[in-house]
């Protein structure tokens, strides 16, 4: 699933490719992609609308149009946007086409068909799905240590699922949770309320820095992620634990192990990241 760095990379690409252009019409080939609206109504609502800007909140893309209309788009597992010359025949997995006024089409491709788009009044965007309860962005300004201390101390949830829950911190997924927990020497099964203030400060720093670095490298391509220009990310070459099971820990040399935590494959170092319980 694209995480914050990948979604931000897509947003930046789309900003260059489609902002300022007007939608002539749309074609929807998989109705479930557009939540709560028939294809003809989706087309009617967007035809003639100019794309003002594209924002991001966590893993959500927010397209803002003229007429105080917005579209919230969640890429889920394998959603992707890219532009092609008008008249290009859509492929099997191109589920939605946005015909633009400059002689190009914006395709939404999704091989798994899990991605969703929601049209909504611009002033109600933050009521859509997980946006209503989403946590702060992982930046120096928005993710404060005081917030993390208060958020973590009230939960006995293990760190891996705790950090994957977008209610706590926006944008983290499987890759960057594994990476930042390894960097912070925290075991993925350690309960959130057992992490010390010193450890939280280190975890906060690592989350902010890792997501910023991954964004600079245009995200991580493991299976199918591409940016809006069709290119792959570059951060897969920088990963320290994710995808390296059986290889030596870059800190102590111990072979990395993989376990399941909350049904998610999780790579960690059994020496550097020691599991902690209430009795420790």
UniProtKB/TrEMBL annotation:
It holds the Pfam family zf-FPG_IleRS. One of its GO terms (biological process) is base-excision repair. The active site is at 2 (schiff-base intermediate with dna), 3 (proton donor), 59 (proton donor), 264 (proton donor). One of its GO terms (molecular function) is zinc ion binding. Binds 1 zinc ion per subunit. Residues 240-274 form the FPG-type domain. Belongs to the FPG family. This is Formamidopyrimidine-DNA glycosylase.
